[in-house]
Write a structure and sequence with these properties.
The protein is an alpha+beta fold. The protein has five helices and four strands; from the N terminus they run αβαααβββα. The strands form two sheets. Strands 1-2 form a two-stranded parallel sheet. The protein has a two-stranded antiparallel sheet with strand order 3-4. A hairpin with a 6-residue loop joins strand 3 and strand 4.
Length: 133
Amino acid sequence: KCKQKLAILYSKLKNARKYYIHNITKKITDNYDIITCEKLNTINMIEKKNNLSKRIIDATFYEIIRQLQYKSKYKGKYFYQIDTYYPSSQTCSVCGNIDNKYKDLNERKYYCSKCQSILDRDLNASINIMAGG
């Protein structure tokens, strides 16, 4: 009985994830004509066995990318993926200066040593990914 209840719970969780991914990808493809993302090597990210591994598995990046690809093609939108090794979080989105000290994920702010701009690390990376696409 416990195994059946657990199987039902996992099924509900799987369906909730599917529904959520479809909603998000639909909103993105409805609202934007150009969609750019980074090619992620999730297998290497999962192998590190840290706190992020479980969250990466739960996020189902592959399914999100797959749905974005086919929905953007179906709706006549443009979908681009930039290279995995593009230094998006290490490049200043204001002046283009590359600073290699931002490889550590614990560093949450990007301070440019050239133009002195201060940005959130993820915002800076997303601007660079958008420009790279």
